[in-house]
Specification:
mainly alpha; about 300 residues
């Protein structure tokens, strides 16, 4: 029995070590880039967003807001107070929806992480997240023109942690917080990926998430809801699943529903949106993930 446990531990260590060395530097670069943006560019991005939100309307505004949301390094709990501040300054809700949606789905750190999935998957992720933000802005503009969709009451903009007068130390403190926050999830992703590689046959993953299975697309979209906890933690699993036959469309669906419905964020979303609008948000995310996943599967990338 002891020999069997030792053998399995060696196998798991082999798979985990291989995943670690393949992905580690993407994670480190993502942390460094995210901290650089947070310390040196975050305030500028948000000031630009506030100015553009007061000047640009319609499709141009949604495009600008979605791009700025992707550039923002904030997580959900940082994005909502920023949007509350923007709302107080008079920014329209369709602009806020585009910014918030794309910011939830993607940030500079996650762009670097996703490079580990390959150039094609990275480009698809960026384009789809951008389009999701634009679509959210368009839907609010046309469907909620005379209604309030958000309720930011109680979400005041928080004071930043990056206040040290020495810029280099400010960067190091920010990097340390990012490493502390994402490190455990990154390690968990490596472990889960090793377990999948060892105990779940590659052909099973291929059949489950393969390009000919619409069920696999739906499954990937729904699995993203409970399984997604951190961008850095899911990259090892996604990389492994893609190598074992998961279609790009199924991966796309997972990459949309995962961050958009991350369990740790749902409480804040429920407060901001209310029960009815929260249900509409959930339906929009699921439908958008399925449509974009289907489109990606149709074209031979």
């Amino acid at each position: 029995m002891l020999d069997i446990l030792q053998r399995e531990a060696i196998y798991l260590w082999y798979y985990a070590d291989r995943q670690f060395h393949q992905i580690f530097w993407y994670w480190v670069l993502g942390m460094v880039l995210g901290s650089l943006v947070s310390v040196f560019a975050k305030e500028g991005i948000h000031r630009l967003c506030a100015r553009l939100g007061q000047r640009l309307t319609g499709p141009i505004g949604w495009i600008a807001a979605s791009l700025l949301g992707i550039a923002s390094p904030l997580c959900m709990y940082g994005t909502i107070p920023i949007c509350a501040s923007f709302s107080q300054k008079g920014l329209k809700e369709d602009f806020l929806a585009a910014f918030m949606m794309s910011s939830i789905l993607l940030n500079p750190q996650l762009i670097i992480y996703s490079a580990a999935l390959g150039r094609t998957a990275l480009c698809i992720r960026i384009i789809v997240c951008f389009l999701c933000g634009v679509a959210a802005g368009a839907l609010l503009h046309y469907c909620f023109k005379e209604k309030n969709f958000f309720n930011f009451k109680g979400f005041a903009e928080r004071a930043g942690h990056d206040t040290h007068p020495n810029l280099f130390l400010r960067f190091l403190f920010n990097l340390g917080r990012n490493l502390k926050a994402t490190g455990p999830w990154f390690a968990l992703g490596i472990l889960l990926s090793a377990l999948f590689q060892r105990y779940i046959p590659a052909e099973f993953v291929g059949k489950l998430f393969g390009p000919q299975k619409q069920f696999g697309l739906l499954l990937a979209a729904t699995v993203g809801v409970p399984l997604y906890v951190c961008g850095g933690g899911t990259i090892p699993m996604l990389r492994d699943w893609l190598a074992e036959g998961m279609s790009l469309g199924a991966a796309t669906a997972f990459m949309v529903t995962g961050p958009a419905t991350k369990i740790t964020n749902l409480g804040a979303l429920k407060i901001v949106l209310g029960a009815k609008n929260f249900a509409l948000y959930f339906a929009f995310v699921l439908l958008f993930s399925l449509v974009t996943g289907t489109v990606v599967n149709i074209f031979p990338f």
